[in-house]
Amino acid sequence: MLLALTISAPRLGAAASETLDGISFAEDPHMLFVPVEEIASGLGWEMQLDQKSGQISLNGHLLDAAYLRKLTNGTLLVPLDELQRAGATTSDHKKVAIQFANKRVEVDLANQSLRAYQGARLVLESSISTGREGKKTPSGEFKAGPVKLPMHRSRLYHNAPMPWSVQVHENIFIHGFRKVPRHPSSHGCIRLPLAGANPAKWFYDWIDIGTPIGIKGHWPAATVRVERSALLARPFIQKVVIVIVTMIACATIIFFVSRARGKA
Questions:
Q1: pTM (predicted TM-score)
Q2: What is the pLDDT of residues 31-74, one digit of tens each?
Q3: What residues does each domain of the chain span?
């Protein structure tokens, strides 16, 4: 179910309204965030950036950096509390509705990618690495949890560390990993990068227990390996053919030379 908070700002002329999908995080699911640029445009506010300090002002109000968050692509998020401190009210002026939208996660096995949505808003898109041959990641519809730990350790694989772990199904987790090639390489889990903007931690902070996780597509490694095998086989076959032809040619030349000498 979608809930909504409506905020507004004074504006001359007729009232206008629009709706934005808010972004929430697991540790405080009742606090909503919205992209700074979107809400500034929606409320008709001026946004200013101090190039030296990096501080941002909305409607003349300096935003408190301690309360701001970011998407992994660098988009800056502001909580509704900060908007109210900047002058947003519930008066009958230009209105923007901020929705408590449902979350969902889509895992694409064929393209080795993960997308996370809140309502219609794409909040995270990341490359992943799923289960290799013999350890394939299962496809289907699942829900996050019940296990969710900042550090989980594998009981099946020598107590291996699995930071920012979110259980998907039985011993299959979405978790962080140092190296995440864009091809299947895990024991069945879905690996998210720890490097860069740390999608693994961002995902962990965002996802709620019970969030739907759909795993779809076909495991791509079999096709890739056949193609690689074929590509590797071609040069080898070509070399063998060249060697055989060369040997036959040499033998033929020797035969005719020997025959010519015998006649002489």
A1: 0.77
A2: 999 999 999 998 889 999 888 888 999 989 999 999 999 999 99
A3: 3-100, 103-221
Q: What's the DSSP call for residue 26? A: T
Residue length of the chain: 264
Question: If pLDDT is split at 50, 70 and 90, which confidence band does 77 have?
Answer: very high
Residue in 39, 22, 30 with CA at minimum distance from that of residue 98 = 22
The CATH number for 103-221, chosen from 3.30.2110.10, 2.40.110.10, 3.40.50.2300, 2.40.440.10, is 2.40.440.10
Using alpha carbons, select from 149, 163, 125, 162 the residue that is nearest to residue 26. Answer: 149
Residue 72 token pair: 């992994």
E strand intervals along the chain: 3-9, 17-21, 23-25, 28-35, 47-49, 56-58, 61-62, 69-70, 76-79, 94-100, 103-108, 113-118, 121-127, 140-143, 148-153, 161-169, 172-177, 190-193, 212-216
State which amino acid sits at residue 16. Answer: A
